[in-house]
């Protein structure tokens, strides 16, 4: 079974190589997809200025590798935002990967499943499961992709930032005794980059759409606390870079502030950049004052000095 899968994966990867983007696409689960229900739901792709994915059924990674002679050995797994309802796949995904490539960094876009009671048995656990699996998979392929296995970070925007911060606070070192080589790998990210992230599910200031989509409208207190990631920071959570704008009305800046304070309390290296303008969801765009451009330069500088 494993040999057949490896052969199929090789053929699939080669067949997915894009002449335009020089990327490869890989399913993150070699066999059965956890928490999946049999249904007739199909993935939907819409393009209207931004490519939006919904009803994701088969979680995948799309891998963009820099030229070998420019590669730093670093890799970033990117979680696009969309309130756990959709994925802004190019705006906060493939565009970011290509920008990272221009700095010698591998950019790997995670197409994670969005919570759905119709298609999943435990919807609230599904994005985290997909993210953990993606980190393990990239670490398994690190040598093949010219990536250092201890330089694999996670990045997320908005609700994707919530997923990224979840992965940086809920992780394990892998199971060396597992038959599956993927499960032998650690799912701890080596660093985090969080852009205007949803962090807390505290009802006073959370992004209620993200919370409702992940946990439902009447969630149990234990899950609110579990996914309020400012409460879940560990002593071994990774170094973190945050950026946010003060005029963000969708996800208040308080989310980043709380996470930053929690990192400092545990003496985890952290850098945060706050901008007066930018609102929510600016990604790589620059407003007329140019205030957001700073995060890109600062982020690359921070990564170079990790």
Structure description:
This protein is α/β, with parallel strands linked by helices. It has a single domain (58-304), classed as Rossmann fold. The protein has helices at residues 2-16, 90-101, 126-140, 159-167, 208-215, 221-226, 254-265, 293-304; strands spanning 23-27, 44-47, 51-54, 60-64, 75-79, 87-88, 106-111, 152-157, 192-195, 240-245, 270-275. An 8-stranded mixed beta sheet has the order 1-4-7-5-8-9-10-11, with helices on both faces. Strands 2-3-6 form a 3-stranded antiparallel beta sheet. α3 crosses α4.
CA-CA gap between termini: 40 Å
Q: What's the CATH topology name?
A: Rossmann fold
What is the count of DSSP helices, taking H or I runs of 4+ residues? 8
The profile of the biggest β sheet is: 8 strands, mixed
Report the radius of gyration as a whole number of Å. 18 Å
In percent, how helical is the residue content? Answer: 25-40%
């Amino acid at each position: 079974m494993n040999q057949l899968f490896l052969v199929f994966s090789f053929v699939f990867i080669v067949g997915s190589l894009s002449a335009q983007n020089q990327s490869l696409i890989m399913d993150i689960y070699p066999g059965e997809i956890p928490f999946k229900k049999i249904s007739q739901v199909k993935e939907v792709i819409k393009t209207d200025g931004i490519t939006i994915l919904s009803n994701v059924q088969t979680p995948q990674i799309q891998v963009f590798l820099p030229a070998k002679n420019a590669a730093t050995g670093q890799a970033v797994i990117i979680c696009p935002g969309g309130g756990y309802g959709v994925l802004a796949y190019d705006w906060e995904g493939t565009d970011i990967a290509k920008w990272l490539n221009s700095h010698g960094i591998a950019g790997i876009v995670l197409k994670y499943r969005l919570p759905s009671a119709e298609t999943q048995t435990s919807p609230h656990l599904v994005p985290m499961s997909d993210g953990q699996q993606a980190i393990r998979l990239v670490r398994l392929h690190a040598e093949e992709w010219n990536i250092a296995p201890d330089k694999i970070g996670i990045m997320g925007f908005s609700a994707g930032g919530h997923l990224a911060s979840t992965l940086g606070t809920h992780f394990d070192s892998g199971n060396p005794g597992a038959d599956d080589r993927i499960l032998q790998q650690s799912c701890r990210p080596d660093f985090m980059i969080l852009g205007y992230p949803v962090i807390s599910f505290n009802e006073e200031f959370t992004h209620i759409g993200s919370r409702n989509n992940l946990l439902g409208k009447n969630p149990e207190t234990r899950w609110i606390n579990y996914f309020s990631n400012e409460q879940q920071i560990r002593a071994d959570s990774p170094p973190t870079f945050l950026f946010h704008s003060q005029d963000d009305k969708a996800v208040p800046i308080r989310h980043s502030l709380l996470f930053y304070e929690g990192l400092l309390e545990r003496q985890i290296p952290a850098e945060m950049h706050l901008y007066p303008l930018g609102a929510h969801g600016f990604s790589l765009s620059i407003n007329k004052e140019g205030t957001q451009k700073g995060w890109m330069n600062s982020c690359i500088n921070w990564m170079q000095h990790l």
